[in-house]
Specification:
The chain is an alpha+beta fold. It is built from 2 helices and 3 strands; from the N terminus they run ββαβα.
């Protein structure tokens, strides 16, 4: 899930304990940051957004999470 607001292009990440233990939560955050770093040009530059990881994110894996984030970035850019 992604929440957006006009801003300067910042990103926030929220991963609750429902996703898993500390190791799993940190892994999901690393995956999100890495995907954002690699696909930064896909995201609109003047939008602040917060990524809220759901419990299924841990089971999706890095590739699945990155695909979903890229799809959300395309939707944000279309607005």
């Amino acid at each position: 899930m992604v929440f957006t607001l006009a801003g300067t292009g910042r990103m926030g990440i929220t991963v609750s304990r429902k996703v898993g233990g500390a190791v799993v939560r940190n892994r999901v955050k690393r995956w999100i940051r890495e995907c954002y770093r690699r696909r930064r040009t896909d995201f609109p530059g003047q939008v602040d957004f917060v990524v809220v990881a759901r419990p299924a994110a841990a089971g999706a894996g890095h590739a699945g999470l990155c695909r979903e984030l890229a799809a959300l970035a395309r939707r944000m850019g279309a607005r």
